[in-house]
User: Fold Transposase from Eleusine coracana subsp. coracana.
Amino acid sequence: MTLEAVSKHLHVSKAKLILYMRKGLLRCHSNTIKPYLTEANKKTRLRWCVDMLDPESTPNDPQFKALFDHVFIDEKWFFFTQNSAKYYLLLEKDDPHRTSKSKNYILRLMFLCVTARPRFHNGVCIFDGKIG
Assistant:
């Protein structure tokens, strides 16, 4: 995952790898894990999308429902620190002292977001869609 690891396994210097990258012989690629969807998952997702269409508009001009009766909830976890961290320090500075009860129980914060569709009455916003 790093140039140092690649150079170690190939027994080539890191500078040579950078030269190969500049020449276009090597390239860097990042990859994220994608959800594995079975046929049943795909059908369920497609059914949910089709159910969001307004039945009165489907034959000629398909449009989505107004979604006034739906609330969307999302959560995100933020970790206060990582297991390992790299620091660049001046010579006279002491090493940072970091502690945790266990590396499996690092403090974290959950951010919860709940939104709904805004509501307007006579052009005036009576509900902006934000909850809490």
Notes: The radius of gyration is 26 Å. The longest strand covers residues 71-79. The chain has a mean pLDDT of 83.
